[in-house]
Design goal:
By secondary structure, the chain is of the alpha/beta class. Helix content is 36%, strand content 21%. It has two domains: 112 residues, Ribulose 1,5 Bisphosphate Carboxylase/Oxygenase (2-Layer Sandwich); 83 residues, Ribosomal protein L1/L10, domain II (Rossmann fold). The strands form three sheets. It has a four-stranded antiparallel β-sheet. A three-stranded parallel β-sheet has the order 4-3-5, with helices on both faces. It has a two-stranded antiparallel ribbon with strand order 2-6.
Length: 233
């Protein structure tokens, strides 16, 4: 995208205005003029106090139309669970052999899954996986004995999310090429997943703000009522 075109598109989006979801997707389509298929990203501001450990929101949701890419899945498993992982289509399966590769600098996967009895092995590379966001986590469904289901869900397109600074959740809901209908379905699924995890100690308005953007495009703020309408649809 040329610098001039980028500026023209950004000028059309008023940062102080809140738009409907339909208007936001129109801007996203206009703004996604890169040579690659841009991702569509979501930022949700929640009414939580992230300084309180019981108000952290973290989870994952299977999007009905996936993410537009197939994740490479690594599974730490042994015995019968190895066969289960193979059947589900895991890309890499092992134990100490994988630890050795990771310690050697290899990180050729997107998501790591582990059965609970393998967490002692996984702990040997926790200092490497943790900072990269690759550590298996029960809240994300990646520490489980249900290996087949976990791998299939990730391969189908599972969006992970967690609260970051100022109680904002960031996640991707697919690619611009999906079109408005599929992106709306994925956004609805994400919002439902985040809503289900509302901390009991969180008081007041939970969904406080929403913004959509493509990889290279401007962020478009959404009216709060639009979130409620989408969830009710």
């Amino acid at each position: 995208m040329s610098g001039k075109k980028q500026k023209d598109i950004r000028k059309q989006v008023n940062p102080d205005k809140k738009y409907s979801i339909d208007e936001a997707f129109t801007f996203i389509k206009k703004g996604a003029t890169s040579k690659f298929d841009e991702a569509v990203d979501v930022a949700i501001r929640l009414g939580v106090d992230i300084k309180q450990s019981n108000q952290q929101v973290r989870g994952a949701v299977v999007l009905p139309h996936g993410l537009g890419k197939t994740a490479k899945v690594l599974v730490f498993a042994k015995g019968e669970k190895v066969k289960e992982a193979e059947k589900a289509g895991a890309d890499f399966i092992g134990a100490d052999d994988l630890v050795a590769k990771i310690n050697g600098g290899w990180l050729g996967f997107d998501v790591a899954v582990a059965t609970p009895d393998m967490m002692g092995v996984v702990g040997k590379v926790a200092k490497i996986l943790g900072p990269k966001g690759l550590m298996p986590n029960p809240k994300l469904g990646t520490v489980t004995f249900e290996v087949e289901r976990a791998v299939k869900e990730i391969k189908a397109g599972k969006a992970e999310f967690k609260t970051e600074k100022a109680g904002i959740v960031h996640a991707s809901i697919g690619k611009v090429s999906f079109g408005e209908a599929k992106l709306k379905d994925n956004l609805r699924a994400l919002l439902e997943g985040v809503r289900r995890l509302k901390p009991p100690s969180s008081k007041g308005v939970y969904f406080q703000g929403l913004a959509l953007s493509s990889t290279m495009g401007p962020g478009v703020r959404i009216e709060a009522a639009e979130m409620a309408r989408l969830l009710e649809a």
